[in-house]
Design goal:
- The chain has 7 helices and 5 strands.
- The termini are far apart.
- The chain is of the alpha+beta class and 220 residues long.
Length: 220
């Protein structure tokens, strides 16, 4: 369907209302799925493959139809909105779905990026920590917590990381060395993701860990 100027203005206003910038979008045309005599007007999100397609159904200019991605709980969704006002309601919902997807951190990507650059080497020794080894481990964790004060972390971020380190220190009393070191790496990676640390702070955190556990934790 060809959009009226007033309809495009309504679309513009809804984009702004949802906290997005109209400059992030562009209009395009494509075939109309259920109206072979017309075409669809698409609004594409420039920075990804997401879009909203304004279509009509059954060879009628009055039966509005929407095809869009992302959907509420599926990647691709279709909806017979029938009227223009209903179409705008569907479009407004789509903007919420879009904002959710473009603002949420990709935890799988962060996980890959974090682990990929670590170049870890952990020995397979899974014996329990001796009393002497546990004391040394505790001292290194204390050193790590002190070193974290040099990183520009928010107070609440620092508090969470320190709490995780205290818990890890406690678990070392019962776990074997290999199991504990694996838990340590997984906990730090998950914490970086949970706190949504900036790439700079995440890199500084790992560099600090490497320095503190050098020649002990076998992080290279």
């Amino acid at each position: 369907m060809k959009l009226l100027t007033s309809q495009k203005n309504s679309i513009y206003d809804l984009i702004v209302k949802n906290g997005l910038s109209p400059s992030q979008f562009k209009f395009s045309k494509s075939a109309n799925k259920y109206n072979y005599d017309g075409f669809a007007t698409n609004l594409e999100y420039k920075n990804d493959e997401f879009y909203f397609s304004f279509q009509t159904a059954e060879n009628s200019e009055n039966d509005h139809y929407a095809i869009f991605s992302p959907g509420d709980d599926v990647y691709f969704e279709e909806f017979f909105s029938r009227s223009w006002n209903s179409q705008l309601a569907v479009f407004s919902n789509w903007l919420r779905y879009l904002k959710r997807e473009i603002t949420v951190p990709d935890k799988w990507k962060v996980l890959h990026d974090q682990v990929d650059h670590l170049d870890l080497k952990i020995d397979q020794d899974n014996d329990k920590f001796s009393a002497k080894e546990f004391i040394e481990l505790t001292n290194r964790i204390i050193e790590l917590k002190e070193s974290l004060n040099k990183i520009d972390l928010l107070p609440e971020q620092l508090e969470i990381i320190n709490s995780k380190l205290d818990h890890l220190n406690k678990t070392a009393e019962d776990l074997g060395k290999f199991d504990w070191k694996s838990l340590f790496i997984g906990t730090i990676v998950n914490t970086v993701i949970q706190l949504n640390l900036t790439p700079e702070n995440a890199q500084l955190l790992w560099s600090t860990i490497k320095n503190v556990f050098s020649n002990y934790f076998l992080i290279e």
